[in-house]
Design brief:
2 copies of one chain form a homodimer.
Chain A (H helix, E strand, L loop, with lengths): L1 H9 L11 H10 L12 H22 L2 H8 L3 H8 L2 H8 L6 H10 L5 H14 L3 H13 L1 H20 L6 H24 L10 H17 L8
Helix pairs in contact in A: 2-3, 3-4, 3-6, 3-10, 4-5, 7-8, 7-10, 8-12, 9-10, 10-11, 11-12
């Protein structure tokens, strides 16, 4: 225990990669002051410090820009400890935003259904998650995301890095087209959640999942693989 | 002045039409205790009392269920005063939710474009409002709507009674089909707002309005007039 602590303390404080503008530095240090002393590896304090630093890093730099090393530094712990307790970056991200479900576990089944059924299968999975016991947690995530700019970025990163990337990643498209199609699909999927579960617009709010899959699936399919003018500047 | 006050005081307190379950009574009385004394017709206090009573009534009973008479009673003023200061029920509703734009003024142009262009024209109008100076107010409305059940109902009533009803009202459909198509269109329109302006998913967030009209217009058109399986229980 003492040895591990000493090892952590001996790591030189390194400048944060990418520098970052002043607001970002402020935000990171508000979220988690970098004290590098006295944090026990498995304690709830340490865990919470890592999660707070992770939220700050993912919101400021995006999922791709944030690294476990930066997050560990901001939380004052060793990167190996973060890996040990949270696993990889995907899992740390899911823990940080308290994601109600893990798309990495749920999506393979959807993707195995084939490209031609992707739209319907994605809508079916979305409804299965939201109509199940995970709804309160999912609703809390969406509500917190809409409240301010900061939390909105975390939900966007969740959508883009954990869901859309996996869905459109199977289509063998150039990056720009992949992102354009992904963002269109996102607009319909988020809107379905908002209309059915948040605003509760009828008859969508009480309709059977399969009737919604039949109505909305073709839209998502068209956005992902169909003939569509892609949004551009 | 004294005479007007006396006249108001002399109106008998009438029971609220429709009764209402206990929670509703609580909510209405929290929003505005029914004191019927000393409220001057044009004062900001009176105006705010009417708006608070209106928010409570529209959230609890929906746009169709709420009446100006009930709202006036809850605010302790004469219904004629509400008509005088706010106009009709539509305008009172827009004032109560601080709507950034009046669909009754904006939609006729969209509807005049013909049924076959309805999808594209609705998306174009949505983007014009949200890309213009009204965005902060519109964003505030959406953010407040998502925060809790109570305000979500107000945004739903705004969407349904002020926007969808006018858009699908031109299509000459049976009521059930009108509502089903309207709720599908709502899911795409709300999702576009969420993806572009709230979560800022790229490239949708920075794309030109016309490229989005071309991509998303056909979806809304299909929901409104096309071949679509309608959501059902």
């Amino acid at each position: 225990m003492d040895r591990r602590r000493r090892r952590r303390r001996r790591r030189p404080a390194r400048p944060r990669p990418g520098g970052g503008h002043p607001a970002e530095e402020d935000r990171l240090s508000t979220a988690q002051p970098r004290r590098r002393t006295g944090r026990r590896p498995g304690s709830p304090d340490t865990r919470n410090a890592v999660l707070a630093a992770a939220r700050a890093a993912f919101a400021e730099r995006g999922f791709d820009g944030a690294t476990i090393r930066q997050i560990a530094t901001a939380a004052g712990v060793d990167p190996a400890l973060v890996h040990h307790y949270f696993g990889n970056k995907d899992k740390l991200f899911l823990a940080a935003i308290e994601a109600p479900a893990n798309p990495a576990e749920l999506l393979p089944e959807v993707l195995a259904g084939g490209t031609e059924n992707l739209g319907e299968n994605v809508v079916r999975l979305l409804l299965r998650v939201w109509d199940g016991p995970m709804r309160p947690a999912a609703l809390a995530l969406v509500r917190s995301a809409v409240t301010n700019e900061w939390t909105a970025r975390l939900l966007r990163e969740f959508l883009v890095s954990q869901i859309l990337r996996r869905v459109v990643g199977t289509l063998g498209l150039p990056a720009a087209e992949r992102e354009a199609r992904g963002s269109l699909a996102a607009s319909q999927l988020i809107g379905l959640v908002m209309a059915r579960y948040v605003l509760r617009v009828e008859p969508l709010a009480s309709a059977s999942p399969e009737s919604i899959v039949a109505a909305v699936g073709p839209t998502v399919q068209r956005y992902l693989t169909g003939d569509v003018d892609l949004p551009k500047p």
